[in-house]
Amino acid sequence: MNKKEVSEIRKNFSDKSGFFVMERVLTGFVDAEKNVRCIQSRSCVTMPVDEHDVYDETLKKVLSTNIGKAFIEYEFPNDAYSEGGQQELLYSLLKSELKDEEICERFITHIAENIAYESPFAVITAYCSYTVRRKNKKDEYSGEDQIYRYILTAICPVSTPKDGFIFDSEANRIVKKLNTELIINRSPSDGFLYPVFSNRSPDVNHVMYYTKNIKEPNISVVEDVLGCNFTLSAEDEKNSFQSILKSVVGDDLDYMVIKTVNEKLLDVVDENRDDTDSAVIDSSKLKDILTDIGVSAERTNMTQPVYEKICGSVPLTASNLVDSKTVLSSDGITVNIKPSATDKVRTSVVNGRRCLLIDIDDPTININGLPVTLE
Hints:
Layout: H1 3-11, E1 20-30, E2 36-43, H2 49-60, E3 71-75, H3 86-96, H4 101-114, E4 121-132, E5 146-159, E6 164-168, E7 173-177, E8 183-184, E9 190-194, E10 196-198, E11 201-203, E12 206-211, H5 219-225, H6 234-249, H7 255-271, E13 280-281, H8 283-292, H9 297-300, H10 303-311, E14 316-317, H11 318-321, E15 326-330, E16 333-337, E17 345-350, E18 353-358, E19 364-367, E20 370-373
Antiparallel strand pairs: 1-2, 1-4, 3-12, 4-5, 5-8, 5-9, 6-7, 9-12, 10-11, 13-14, 15-16, 17-18, 19-20
C-alpha cells in the first residue's frame, strides 16, 4: 500500500463517510502470564455510540500514513497459507466475519502465545467493509462498485493508574485511594491490517504492520504472529546507511560531505513527493550522489561491494535516511543546526587548533535566554 491508498482507507474510517461500515468487533484480554482471560465478539449495530466511538478512535490510529516507518507492508511466505499457517488463520477470520467462536478463540490464543509482551494487553479486532467507487477515464463514477472487506487489529497495553489522594465526598475529607482498575490504553503499541488495499483492490498475500515505536518495532508480531520475514526498520535503515557512508568515504568523511549528502537525499524525496511509491536509494544511486559531490573515484568504486555486504540487494527508503537537522556533538558540546543554516557552519584549523566556526549575521545572540552582543 502506498500513502494515497492508506489515506483513502483512513479518511473513510468513519460511519459519516457513507461508504464505510464497522460491522463487528472482537476483543480479548491477555494477562502478564499470557493467559487469555476473556474473548468477546459483538455486533456494532446495537453498540452504544460512545463505546463505538472509542473503538473507532483506537483502531484508526493503526492506519498510519507514515508509510515505511510506522506502517510497513509485508508479504507472506509461500507456506503461510498452509493449514495452521498465519495467513490461513487471518483469511479464515476474515471470511468468518468474526462470527465463528472457534476461529476467534484460535486467533486471540495465537497472539497471546506468540507475541513478546511482558505486561497485560488487550486485542481489539474489527471486521469492516468499504465501498470502493470506480471511475472511468473521464473521472466519472462508472457505477461498478466493489466491496473491500478487511480486518483491522489493535494491540493495546494495559496499565494500572498510580495511587493518589482523592476527595471522599461522603466522609468530607481527603483520603488515599488504592487503584486496582486495569485501564486499556487507547493508543495501540502494535497492530495490523489484512488484507492490504492495493490498486484499490484487496490483496490477501500481503499484510500491513503498525508500530507505535518506530525505533524499536515488535519483531515478534511480524515474525511470530503474522509469520512474515522482518525487514529493516526505519532506524535500522538509517544505521545501515551511515555504516555504508563511513566505510565508502572513509577519512574523507567531513562536515561538508555529510551536509551535502543529506541535501541530495532531501532532493530525491522532494522530487518523488507526488509519486505513489516511496523513493528509494540503492548502491547505484548512492554512487551517483557521492560522485556528484566530488568523492574520488577510488572511493565511489567501493560503493557496490560495501552496500551489498551490509544491505544485500535491498534498496533503502530515502525518507528514512534524511536528517531534519544537523547535530554536531563533542565532549560537553552539542550544536543543533536547521537545514536553512547549514551553510553558516564550517570546520577549520585556526592557530593549529581544530575549530567549529559559525557565521553570525546578527551581532546579537541569546545565551541561556539572555541577549549578548558580539563585538
